[in-house]
């Protein structure tokens, strides 16, 4: 007895005292005050900063500049000095193709120029035959007809293209017509090259053979093939879009039905899995030991070979080893089951109660739709701003050496005031085309622009993390408030307040924006550190520094674990904030202490819930995938008339499967939040109340029965639920 008291005293000192009874607490507190106001103000300031960065990006960026090609002078075709020349022509397209797919990543090292139109003929220049007037495609500033260089020098110095193919524009690049014919007419590349009767020469004037041309340009054919597949996939999606929506709707209905029936099948699923596990290892132990006794007097052996390694193992010893391992696992599993049996029953009962809570408040199932949509909006906004920011560094719309009235006076002199304004606005972009300022000043302005764009991208990424986690916090706290209202209703569903979801959402916005901002800020900082570690790890690839690599791997692992722990702690903190209205730090501390005082129960219910949710998601996704497969493959006879004709029938099946997984995750996230909220409320109920008429338990009758507890109340006041 003394040891038990000592253990309790040690527990109270280590993880705080159990919660005391509060006669005024009847569920989520309505009279509460704003929490974490400083974090709320900081969050709003950062939102304003994001608006400023977005304004700069939208004002001075143009995503089209990321799509338009650039010539060898890094000038964008169709803009600035290359206005009216929207297409890119490669001087030696065959040499580019010989780089393989790397040409799409690293670019082509041969000269390339912007042209107003792609070539309409196949041509190979021969210096001793062709005149300078035939040199149609030369670098900017090079006029072959007036150049003092000879025809041979113009080609050897790569001032002009040696050859060109009849081409068509594709994403503003001049692509040989016969390459496009490979797709449109179904030819192979060798046949297309032979039919086009083309020729090409390298930088030294040597002729490329048809095989080299075909092999080199095949990389562009691969790109076009991928483009064709992409177009067919889009066509299939467009054809079957309404059928895909019906499939997702059926997945949603099935997930809803599954959640409702979980109250009846949860116990069966858990106990069946446990006994199946025990039966499997029991059979494994008996069979392997039986085989050992049958073979122990023989010299049978296994011969195993892995590449150059050969191994010989005795069959009796191998069966004995497997028998011992299986037996040890079986004994451990049986001991765990005997010790944790009551806790497993509690977990099952809470899962059933979660199903009842969701069934009572059906509107909770649509709650995840709004946070999910908001997260898509946040990520989409981040991506849009990032693209616009990336394009600000390529803006070439100013050329101060032209005769624009905006930058020159009628007499031809410069309008310094307008030039200074434009230069300030674009951080020195004018320095590329004017000598008005010193080179040091131009370099300074360019560095400021580059730094601003980099810092803006980092800030934009950080805000994306913060906002996404804020939306997650909003969804979790809203659901926690609703489910806490359910648990602390003494007689369900009569005592559940009207509109519990809307009331909880109102309390989140009215009182706890700062707490949600605080919790999401912590997660965002950890995620930014993880991004930094990934960047450093990428930079260390190929470097011979094993010590640095080891420390980076350790740090990545530690911060991954830290993020998981903080997300778990935040979710439980939001539950207590929703119920009691205290600030984030106090709620996180109370949640942590409450969990540590009941750590075994927490582990059991967490793992049991994870297992059931995994099985449930698997069932929903399998149902959606199987149904869509049989439908789109035409195997459902009475629906065969509705089966569309598609290029790839696997496309809608994949989309339905992925969509059903997202739907199942959204629906079962509500279920998981219900179980977590009810569990914390259950732990509070155990500590606050004792079943007396003054302090009755709020837990369900099933939970009281498992724990051997009951409410002792006056006959006139006795209420069972």
UniProtKB/TrEMBL annotation:
Residue ranges of the TM segments: 37-58, 240-261, 268-290, 318-341, 362-390, 465-490, 511-533, 611-632, 648-671
Keyword Transmembrane: yes
Gene Ontology molecular function terms on file: transmembrane transporter activity
Keyword set includes Cell membrane: no
Membrane topology of this protein: Multi-pass membrane protein
Keyword terms: Glycoprotein, Membrane, Transmembrane, Transmembrane helix
UniProt xrefs under InterPro entries: Choline_transptr-like (IPR007603)
Predominant subcellular localization, coarse grouping: membrane
Subcellular location: Cell membrane; Membrane
One of the record's GO cellular component terms: plasma membrane
Its job: Choline transporter.
Family to which this protein belongs: Belongs to the CTL (choline transporter-like) family.
UniProt name for this protein: Choline transporter-like protein
Upper taxonomic lineage: Eukaryota, Metazoa, Spiralia, Lophotrochozoa, Mollusca
Gene that specifies this protein: LOC111125204
């Amino acid at each position: 007895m003394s040891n038990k008291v000592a253990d309790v005293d040690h527990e109270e000192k280590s993880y705080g005292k159990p919660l005391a009874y509060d006669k005024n607490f009847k569920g989520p507190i309505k009279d509460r005050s704003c929490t974490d106001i400083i974090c709320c103000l900081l969050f709003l300031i950062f939102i304003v900063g994001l608006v400023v960065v977005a304004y700069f990006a939208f004002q001075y960026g143009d995503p089209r500049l990321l799509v338009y090609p650039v010539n060898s002078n890094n000038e964008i075709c169709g803009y600035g000095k290359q206005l009216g020349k929207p297409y890119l022509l490669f001087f030696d397209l065959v040499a580019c193709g010989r780089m393989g797919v790397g040409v799409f990543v690293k670019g082509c090292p041969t000269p390339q120029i912007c042209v107003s139109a792609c070539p309409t003929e196949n041509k190979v220049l021969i210096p001793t035959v062709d005149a300078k007037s035939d040199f149609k495609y030369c670098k900017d500033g090079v006029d072959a007809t007036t150049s003092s260089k000879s025809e041979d020098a113009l080609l050897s110095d790569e001032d002009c293209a040696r050859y060109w193919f009849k081409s068509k524009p594709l994403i503003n690049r001049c692509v040989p017509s016969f390459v496009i014919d490979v797709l449109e007419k179904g030819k192979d590349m060798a046949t297309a090259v032979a039919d086009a009767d083309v020729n090409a020469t390298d930088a030294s004037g040597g002729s490329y053979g048809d095989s080299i041309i075909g092999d080199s340009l095949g990389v562009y054919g691969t790109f076009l093939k991928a483009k064709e597949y992409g177009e067919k996939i889009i066509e299939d999606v467009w054809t079957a879009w309404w059928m895909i929506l019906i499939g997702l709707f059926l997945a949603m209905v099935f997930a809803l039905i599954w959640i409702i029936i979980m109250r009846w099948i949860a116990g069966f699923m858990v106990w069946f899995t446990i006994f199946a596990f025990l039966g499997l290892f029991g059979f494994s132990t008996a069979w392997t030991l039986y085989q050992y006794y049958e073979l122990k007097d023989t010299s049978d052996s296994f011969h195993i070979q892995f590449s150059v390694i050969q191994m010989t193992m005795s069959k009796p010893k191998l069966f004995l080893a497997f028998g011992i391992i299986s037996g040890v696992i079986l004994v451990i599993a049986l001991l765990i089951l005997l010790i944790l049996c009551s806790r497993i029953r509690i977990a099952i009962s809470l899962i059933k109660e979660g199903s009842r809570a969701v069934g009572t408040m059906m509107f909770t199932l649509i709650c995840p739709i709004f946070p999910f949509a908001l997260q898509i909006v946040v990520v989409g906004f981040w991506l849009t701003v990032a693209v616009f920011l990336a394009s600000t560094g390529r803006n070439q719309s100013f050329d101060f050496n032209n005769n624009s009235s905006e930058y020159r006076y009628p007499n031809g002199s410069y309008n310094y005031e307008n030039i200074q304004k434009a230069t300030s606005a674009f951080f020195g972009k004018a320095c590329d085309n004017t000598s008005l300022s010193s080179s040091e000043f131009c370099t300074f302005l360019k560095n400021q622009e580059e730094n601003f764009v980099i810092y803006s991208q980092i800030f934009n990424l950080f805000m994306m993390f913060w906002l996404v986690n804020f939306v997650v916090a909003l969804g979790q706290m809203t659901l926690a408030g609703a489910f806490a209202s359910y648990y602390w209703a003494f007689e369900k569903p009569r005592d559940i307040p009207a509109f519990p979801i809307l009331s909880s959402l109102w309390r989140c916005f009215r009182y706890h924006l700062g707490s949600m901002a605080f919790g999401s800020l912590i997660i965002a900082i950890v995620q930014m550190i993880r991004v930094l570690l990934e960047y450093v790890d990428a930079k260390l690839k190929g470097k011979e520094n094993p010590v640095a690599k080891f420390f980076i791997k350790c740090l990545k692992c530690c911060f991954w674990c830290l993020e998981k722990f903080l997300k778990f702690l935040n979710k439980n903190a939001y539950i207590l904030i929703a119920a009691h209205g205290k600030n984030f730090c106090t709620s996180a501390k109370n949640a942590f202490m409450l969990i540590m005082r009941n750590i075994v129960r927490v582990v059991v219910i967490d793992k049991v819930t994870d297992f059931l949710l995994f099985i449930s998601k698997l069932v929903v996704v399998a149902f959606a995938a199987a149904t869509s497969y049989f439908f789109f493959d035409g195997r459902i006879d009475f629906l065969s008339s509705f089966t569309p004709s598609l290029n790839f029938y696997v496309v809608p099946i994949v989309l339905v499967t992925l969509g059903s997984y997202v739907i199942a995750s959204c629906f079962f996230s509500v279920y998981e939040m219900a179980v977590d909220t009810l569990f914390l409320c259950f732990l509070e109920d155990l500590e606050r109340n004792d079943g007396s008429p003054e302090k009755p338990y709020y837990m369900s009758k099933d939970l009281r029965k498992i724990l051997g507890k009951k409410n002792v109340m006056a006959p006139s006041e006795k209420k069972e639920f």
